[in-house]
Specification:
Blueprint: H1 38-57, H2 65-74, H3 77-92, H4 96-117, H5 120-131, H6 140-156, H7 162-192, E1 194-197, H8 199-203, H9 208-220, E2 226-229, H10 232-241, H11 245-256, H12 268-284, H13 290-296, H14 303-334, H15 343-358, H16 362-365, H17 371-386, E3 388-393, E4 404-410, E5 417-426, E6 436-441, E7 453-460, H18 473-490, H19 506-520, H20 523-529, H21 541-549, H22 555-572, H23 583-594, H24 610-613, H25 624-642, H26 648-659, H27 667-675, H28 682-687
Parallel strand pairs: 5-7
Antiparallel strand pairs: 1-2, 3-4, 4-5, 6-7
The structure holds zinc ion.
Amino acid sequence: MSQIKPPDSASTPANPLFDDWTGPDGVPPFDRIVPEHFRPAYARALAEHEAEIAAIAANSEPPSFANTIAALELSGRALERIGNVFHLLVGADSNDALLEIEREMSPRIARHWNKINTNEALFRRIDTLMRGVEKLGLSAEQKRVLERYHTGFRRAGAALDSAAKQRLAAIIERLAALGTAFSQNVLADEQAFTLRLEGEAELAGLPDFMREAVKADAQERGIDGYVVTLSRSSVEPFLQFSDRRDLREKIFRGFVKRGDNGSLTDNKKNIAEMVRLRAERAKLLGYADFAHYRLDDAMAKAPAAVRDLLDTVWSPARLRALDDRDAMQALIQADGGNFKLEPWDWRYYAEKLRQRRCNFDEAAIKPYFNLDRIIEAAFYTARRLFGLSFTPRTDVPAWHPDVRVWQVRDGDGDGNEVGLFFGDYFARASKRSGAWMTSLRDQEKLKGDIRPHIVNVCNFAKALEGEPTLLSFEDARTLFHEFGHALHGLLSSVTYPKIAGTSVATDFVELPSQLYEHWLQQPDVLRRFARHYQTGEAMPEELLQRLIAARNFNKGFATVEYIASAVVDLDFHSLAPPAEIDPAAFETKSLRRIGMPDEIAMRHRPPHFDHVFTGGGYAAAYYSYMWSEVLDADAFAAFEETGDIFDPATAKRLRDTIYSAGGAQDPADAYKAFRGRLPSPDALLRKRGFAEPAHAGI
Ligand SMILES: [Zn+2]
């Protein structure tokens, strides 16, 4: 249920989005914000920002770092403040009114930024500064910030002629509208689909935790009985455990057909137009295609480097997956089944295969992964590595009763304030699927010592009232992953907002998050926190060892479903204009080229690939997770080599060079500062178990 009040309360004249937020820690007064407040607040904030920009651009003084770059860094604060609240709500607790405002505002905001980023007078000032950068006497951080502005303006088209600029503006605005439509279509398809389970026969195979989760999902929707939804944390365990092959097929089809139902919410047309417009945009900016444009400003630098990495990992991963497929087919036959393994069977038979090979049962470990204890485990790791403490805050307003808030400090209790951490962990109908980190306020020192307010949003299936929520190991990994991003935001220690926290290249930003996942898999952490939710007993040592030994089980599948999405993303964005495509045929062709096994579906099919088509944050950049994994596999080895996974000297270096450094350095330089060199993919191949021989037979 939403915290948002019905529209009639908007008749009160006061708009809290106009006020200084004087409540606890300056957190937005969520309880007083209603959707109707956003239109007027946006209008005022956009006008204010425009005036600030006009003043900076028209300054009669010659350009200086202070009157141009620092001034830009201080501008647009109201817009940012409102945007942070709005985007948080649209993602984590939306409703029709907010979605309508989003449709209206996203092209307007895109137009607003494009106008700034292509402002000729402004660019001239930045360009003048950049040309004389060595004579300005700037600090290393200031130099980097200037450089980022210059690159950003150049990449936005500030140096183009006016006809090209005009076309670019139209493209950007249209892309913003399409991105919003795309995400709203996915959300609509997710909300429209529920699979009701009637009676014991339809619950067959589901362990207790899953029965409770589907019951809680039904309750949340005001339905009596049991409901499977299209959230990943509902779909995946259902596919893993349900004995009902027919129902598995139904839920699987619902999941992979999101955004692809031939109805009003079908995203294929949107994809075709977005791919075409992105290609055209890249060409206007002087690049062969969108992937070249995108990667020019990433750590990878060019698509060829990405394809090299994906190819290197694809072949052994695919072979491993095919071996597992054959073993599962043999299992089916051995059980007297007379059918070919289909994509909706994979997780089910993988679970059976795991029980045989690893003597390891997902349902047996689940009681040991109590959400509250895993949150504690994430905090414990942060204390051991970085000396942080986390104290619950109950006085801070939030957007939903499920949200929890912690005060983060250096040291125990009375140390320096680091920031606030918000955890919004449970799935609900008003939340889009997936898991992400975002912020209500970023760290900076320019406008005073501003402490960050960092948010993690997840979609864990909530237990019934009064029961503890139990996570799968994958869910626990997701929690650690997002918490790693959160630390990147919380530990940020830079002066300028431009480079604060996670403002780094997309293929570098997954390093702090994926690296953090390693600690969840360590015996020291599991022994302390993987405790039975009823008895409080630690996981039996032998089960713990089996859990760790099984960590690479089914890695072929996980790698194949991921790389397939990364390749199709890169293919879509490697088209030269005019880039006219039929997205469905294109997807099929792309998958055929790499030899995608029929029994495996992409992790994200294009029609619901939010990473790539909503906002475009990961367009031509979904490979980033694997690129960052090359780094995280190698970075964790730095701890292992010392013989102490919490080695203080290594942890300090990690904090200084990566977690607190934001985008203060080029990513390759930042990594070298931590590790002394760049890594090869070998550590990744070892981590995923592809350096070892495959398991023979069932
Ligand atoms: Zn991430």
